[in-house]
Each structure stands twice: as structure tokens, then as C-alpha cells.
Fold these 4 entries.
Entry 1:
Amino acid sequence: MAFASKIDDFPRRLASYVDKLLKGAKAADLPVDQPTTFELVINAKTAKAIGLALPQSLLRRADRIIE
């Protein structure tokens, strides 16, 4: 199970930083970028293999379930 920032957002945020740097901004002057969207991914196959029962309420909240 993982709760982390969406990997799909990374290229967009990275492109924004590169754009600013290419336009002459100093890296030290750029703010630290914080993720704004997160996703919950559950590996149900591994949970089943180790005998872990996952509550339905948790599975309903997951953005992605790996079967």
C-alpha cells in the first residue's frame, strides 16, 4: 500500500521549473514545490499472498488496486 503524490503530476511540475530556469531564474530563488494531489494504491495480490484481509472501506477509498 502506498499513499503518495501522483506520479503523473511530476513531469508537469518539472517542466515548469525547467521553463523558469531557461528564462533566467536562479535555482536558489525558486520555491520548493509541494505536491497537491495524492493517490492511494493498494496491492491486493500481495496482501492476499501474506494473508492480510483488506477492509472494503479501505478498498473503496483506493485510487488504484493492483490485482
Note: The first strand starts at residue 2 and ends at 5.
Entry 2:
Amino acid sequence: MSRRVLVVDDSEITRAILARTLRGAGYEVLQARDGAEAALLALRERPAVVVTDLEMPTLHGYSLLRLLKADPASAHIPVLVLSSQRQAASRFWSLRTGAEAFLSKDYRPQELIETVNRLAALAGPASAAPATSETQAPLSDTIGVLARVARHLDDALLQATLVNTLLEQGVAASDFHEAARGALEILGEIVEALLLAVAVADSEAVLTQVHLAQPVRHEDVEAFSRRLTERVRSRAGLTIEARVSGARGDLTLPRAGTVWLPLALRGAAGVLAVVPQDPQDFEVSSRALLDSLLGPLSLGLDNARLSHRLHELSTLDGLTRQLNHRAIHERLAEELERARRYKHPLSVILCDFDHFKEINDTHGHLIGDAVLREGAVILRRCLRNTDLLGRYGGEEFLMVLPQVDLTAARLAAERLRQSLATTSIAVSDDLEVPVTASFGVADRDELTGPVTADLLVSLADRRLYEAKDSGRNCIRP
């Protein structure tokens, strides 16, 4: 164990008292009058412990601490702050900045020696981090020390800005995908990557967001999204909610080189994936910064995910994971107002699974639930992304089709009818249940006077009953 201690104080008397006390305990003492001189000595002589004041000319104690703890050549050296500032804030900020211990200057000599002994025993080896042009550059004068401090402060400011921005994304976003997209766009500005992505899986669903920093081929994006899902999915059957941002193009993703970084989430598995443009350059220039941001990224995404889930609980049907009755009715009212304002067409389709009571009576309610769940998947698959689907009640589903007139809505209903009629729903390994449905279609332009959501659904409902009276598995009008 090294017995060399660096004492830093602008008071010659204080340095002499400290040096006498430490030499009496068997330590070799180096002395510096301010933080700049201390940095030169610490980086050149590598003492076992640094004992420093806070208030000093040229470079104060906090800046010295930042430099010593940020530089790989000195980060392992324990620092004891010895200050006449007895405020709790000074102690807090000293320890937060990197000091291992803090004593006020009314210390007992034995207390000082015991603290230095403890820190000297804790001193670790110098960091094995790869040298950079900055850490290799010799520090020959005060200007060099101040320049290096400034660079470390810039790095700390960059990291703090990124941390705050990532946390703000998680707090401000209305759902997981919005938060994830914003976070990935931020990371894409500091990492030279072809693609960045996050995936989160809990007991309900897998949420993925892929951000294309470069124009990648569509088929490569689809293949990567599947790999991303499998990375976190714990079991089959989970709902997958996938989003992609950024422009697709003709670049090919490499088959190897993806960096997978785990995210620490509450009750969920998560991963950040990066496909760097140059894997070797990424490890040197970006990996350490990205690693330091995983904590705030995880926290921001976790908050957004939990908010996302709370929103779903209030708006989604628990069985089919489509909009519930209240939510689909509210969204219809919103779309009607938008259609009125811009004079766009709008249609609704109300469908009811045929003979559903017989399915429940024959196979049981668990099979009936599976039929509803898988039937909703078929309906959703046949609709546009801009169309809305909600479970209106029991085995009834309401679809809202913005900017679609009655003729186009009838064609859409026919696609839905055929998809259900030609697909037997596999509810277990040895059971498939055939399903058909009846449909009622209505267009807002068919109504006169003020058009409300209730009036439009009522018209579709009357036509649904006409379809059932006509033999089921058909569309009216």
C-alpha cells in the first residue's frame, strides 16, 4: 500500500499542520497550493490519497474533484475534502462530485489519520480504459489543467443535458411509442448508427419502436423487428405493438454487429438495440456515453410504459384489446366533428358474430372468449391503420371509417365478412371454430340535421338487425 498523500490548501500554515500530522502517522506528504498545482502533482505522482480544501484560487476543490474523478489516470485515487465550510450543502456536493470522505477543519488529528488510513486501504489500481489523445497529452502548466477541466465539464454538461432530455421524453409523452421514438431520435444524434430500437415485454404485450437513422430496406427492417421481438418475448401469444419511424430506403443491414444493451424495467424485460455504422468506432467513441444513459433511458421508458398501460386500462377492452364501448363512442364523436368541419365522408360498420350463444353453449365461455379475441384480430387486420375498431358490447364490434363513403364502406364490410367466413378460428391444438358475422353499414351523409354518434350507430344497428333477419352472414344495406 502506497504511503504518499497529497495535501492541497492555499494556506501555508494549514498545509504545515496537515503535513506534520500525516508524517507522524508514517506518510510521505506532497503539497500543493491550489487545485491546478494539485492536478499536475496527482496525475504525475499518483498519490494514495488526496486531502484537499474547497476554497482555493485558480482552481477550487470541486473542479479538482471533477478532473481527478473523470480522468482515467487519477479516478482510482480516493479524495478527502477537508473544509472550513460546515454547511450540509458543501458536504453533499463534495460527496456527489466524487469525494470519498468529508471532514470539517475542526477535526481531531486522530480522526484525520483514521480517515486517511481507511481511504489508503481502499485505493484501487489505475483504470485500464484505453488512452485517448486527451489523456495522453501531458499536463505541463496551469493552462493545460484548466483546459482539461473545461473538457470534463463539457462532457458532464453533455451527459446531464442528455439525461434530462431523456427523462423529459418519458414524462411528457402520452404513450410508450411517443416516448421511445423521441428517445431514439435523441440517441441517433449522438451515435453514428444505421438503426436504433427499443423493445419492452411484460405479461400483457411486447412494445417495440424502431428508428431508422439511415434509409434501410423494408425487408431488413421487418426481419430486424422480428429479432427484436424475440429478444424480449417470454412466451407465445403476447400482443405485439410495433412502430417504425424514419424513412426506408435501399441500405442493407449487416447480419452481425448489433449491440444489445439491457434496460432495467419494473416487472418487464427491455433492451436497447443499436446497429452502428462502424462497430469499432462505436466502441471507442460512443459506447461509454450510451452505457451511462441506460439508467435514465430505462426510467423514462418505464414511466411511459406504465402510463401507456394505465391509459389502456381506461380505453381498451380487456379481452380483445380493442377500444372499449366508451372509448369507441368518444372517438366516433371526435371523427364526426372532424368530418363535419372539413366536409369529409365518414361511415360506420356494426357487426355481430352469428350464433355466438351456440358457441358458448357448445364449447364453453372460455372458447367463446377465444373466438372473440381472435375474431377481433381478423377484423383489425382487414382495416386501415386510420380506421377505428371497438368492442361495442357482447359479441358486437363497431368500426369507424374516416373519409369513407357508403359505397366504399360496403366494400370494406364485404372484406371483413369474407375474412371471417373463410377462416376457422383455432382456439386450441385440436379445435377450430367456424365463425360468420352480420354487418350493418351507415354513412353520416344519409342523415339529415345534426348528426350525432348515437344517431349514426342507431342507423347501423337497424341495418345489422335487417342482415340477421335476412339469414345472417350478410351486409345491409
Note: The chain is about 50% helix and 20% strand.
Entry 3:
Amino acid sequence: MSIAEQVQEDMKASMRAGDAEKTRTLRLLKSSMKNEEIKVGHPLSDEEALKLLQREAKQRKDSITAYEDAGRTELAATENSELTVIQGYLPQALGENELKRIVNEVATEMGATDMKQMGAVIGGVMKRVGAQAEGGTVSKLVRERLSA
């Protein structure tokens, strides 16, 4: 079952269960997926759906930070509950030690020694880890590796 189909089935189940908050979040995801399908001109592959889910999760994290900084805890709580639902569809994130190991492997394979090669190393790492790591975290680790 594809991610889009899973979201649809989970939405039906949450509607039957009367879970309004989860249903609302799943409707938002379904809408985002539909908009992305229209944009790309074909049904989303699981890889494209994962990228969309990562983007949605990042938006929620950014919103939570902004709302907390503004003292709007009720809005931050809403975003946090949406984030929890979205994260249920994302693969388990790699630990920092595992990610550092992959960064070191890719940098060694590419012979990267300075910051000029940072983009290439980040690209290589992201190809390997896919949706299991956020780009910001990978960027930070690559920067640390290449500046050492």
C-alpha cells in the first residue's frame, strides 16, 4: 500500500473513530498530496510522498518554534499534535552517530577535504539516507567533518 493510500485509509479510520484532530491533520496531508500531484502531473511515488511529508514536518517544527517564541502555546500545541501524526508516516530517523559514520564514509569516498566540496558530500549523504535524516542535520555534520 502506498503512503497516499495509507493516509486515505487512516483518515477513514479516524473519521469512524471520531478523532477530529487526527482527521483534520490527515485531510491537510491528503490535500497537500493532491496539490503536489497536480504540480508534478502524475500520482506521487512513495519517495515523492516522503519528501512532501518531510516538508510538512519541517513546516510544523518551524511553526512550533515561532508560536512558542510569541507565547502562543495553544497554537504550538495544535502544530505539535499535527507533527506527531505526520511523523507516524516518516521512517525512523537515523541516530547522530550512524549519520556521522555515513558522512565520514561519503566524504572519504569522494576525497572531500575542504568546504568547497560540501554540496557534493551533502548530496551523496542525502542519496544514501533518503528520508531518514533532515537536510539541516546532514549539513551541520558535513560542515563539522570538512572544517576539522
Note: The two ends are 44 Å apart (CA to CA).
Entry 4:
Amino acid sequence: MTDFKNRVMKVVKNIPAGETLTYKQVAELVGSPGAARAVGNLMKKNFDSDIPCHRVIKSDGSVGEYNRGGSSVKLKLLTKEASENKKS
């Protein structure tokens, strides 16, 4: 695993349930502000359930795609997590 990929996965793994970051924000947090597309490509290929890639969204606020069922599944997961956070 490359250093860039390790840093991206660490940032994404630490996004709390009910919260999101954009691909651009993740890229900035790992020190590669121009690498939003590379972050998206990593998320597209991520099937590790310990990495909550559904919490990474597009800069325009739309959810974007999700490799485990499409954007509708991603939106359902985010909505469920936000709802659970309100109950806490």
C-alpha cells in the first residue's frame, strides 16, 4: 500500500458516523490538495468494511457514487447515521 493510500485510508477511517468529508477535504488533510480525484479512485476501489468510504462526498454536497450498491445505498447509510446521531 502506498503512503498516499495509507494516509487517505487513515483519514477516512476516522470520519465519525453521521459526518462527512469531501474528496477535496480528504486530499487536503493528507497533504495533497490537488488529489481529490485520486481520493475518489481509492474510494471506488475500497471494499474494506473498516473504511467508511460512504462518508466521503462530492464538493457540491451530492453523495456521488458508492461501490457497494450505488448512490441510493450511500444516501441511505448517511441518512441512517445522521438520524442515529440525533438520538444520542
Note: The longest strand covers residues 21-22.
